[in-house]
Amino acid sequence: MAKFGELIDREEPVVICFDKIEDNTKPHLLDLQSRYLDKITVLIMDVYKNKTLAQALRVKETPCVVIYCGGEMKYRDVGVKNKMARIEKVIKANL
Question: How many domains does the structure of the chain reveal?
């Protein structure tokens, strides 16, 4: 896997979701990825397996969705299900 800095420096939107294994956000994000195919990158990261990165990004609650484009954070919020429209709006604005 590429290093975090290399991932977020991509020109296309990179959607990162820090989540717990038991949460049900994965289907929503995989649907998003399937609609944008090669235009975005979606990473679902287990907050427990990626503690160092989660702490560095100050993830306090899950699911925490962060969108980077060109190395710049474009969006950050907690929750997925009721925020998909906002997440998709940020993605479209950065394609």
Answer: 1
